[in-house]
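quick one
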Amino acid sequence: MDSQIAKILREADQIILSAKSREDLERVYIKFFGKNSDLNKLTKKILTLPKEQKPKAGQQINLVKRELEKLFEEAKTRLSSQLSALSSPIDPTAPGKRIQLGHLHLVSQAIEEIVEIFSKLGFLLQSYPEIDWDWYTFESLNMPKNHPARDEWETFFIKASPDPKYGSQVLTPHTSNGQVREMQRVKKPPIRMINIARCYRRQIDVSHTPMFHQFEGLLIDKNVSIPDLKGTFNFFTQNFFGPDRVTRLRPHHFRFTEPSFEVDITCDVCDGRGCRMCKSGWLELGGAGMVHPKVLKSGGIDAQIYSGFAFGWGIERTIAMKTNTDDIRLLYQNDIRFLEQF
Ligand code: PHE
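structure w/ phenylalanine:
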């Protein structure tokens, strides 16, 4: 009996492991466990054995059965994992899925473009603090303490004890704080600066957000005049908005420029004829003017020798005008349906 058992196990190892399909395996199973199998014959033979040999023989048969079952289980698992690999849902011939690429936010795109355009005219990008002293923000720009003109800048003040010379600290409400800082840095003109920074004001509606960006231009040299300023604006608007757009200067008042202007650009929707969006055919771009002699003096520059112009425009407003967006708050709502369009 021992030799027969050894034979069954030897055969089983090879035959079971070589089964190539489930059907194969079923056939092999019948061969080992079926009516005519050696195992079945051996089981029957137990009945004919003397009584004292029966328990041992029974144990041996059970051991063999367990061993065989184990081999079948292994073979079954191996076959089913091979099968699922064959019927895998991956189709290597199907066209690939394009991964969606993101892009820079509209504001960042505009900043890059603005810097690029002004660099062609020799304006260099500078950065100045976004939390600055009252002195750089107002006082050095010919806006003394308690002057009513300051109201227009709806400023956030920092809670800290003021400096005896520079006063309180503020969240910069415009980029003009960079003007005197740039004069102090360069000391001797020529100056061609572009300063782009975040600005903060207590305001929110369709055309205002409490945090926004401005870009400030400052040019100081000998014999600078208003046509230089106008030429610079036309160069910018034609490069940024398109060759057909033109600008106009409207008299205005700022304490730090004299004369001062508001710069308008022809409306894109109606081509300057007048429509619902612009009313008069013109859209307001921002403020500008010839640098006030008192501001040059704050920066240590001799107003008898040098003159210059400055301008400060909102980036969000500029984007809205280029894309015909009627609510600049959309820029900060992170709605992908809006941002994806650009
Ligand atoms: N700083 C002004 C503002 O925020 C704009 C300006 C800048 C006007 C430079 C004239 C010169 O409205």
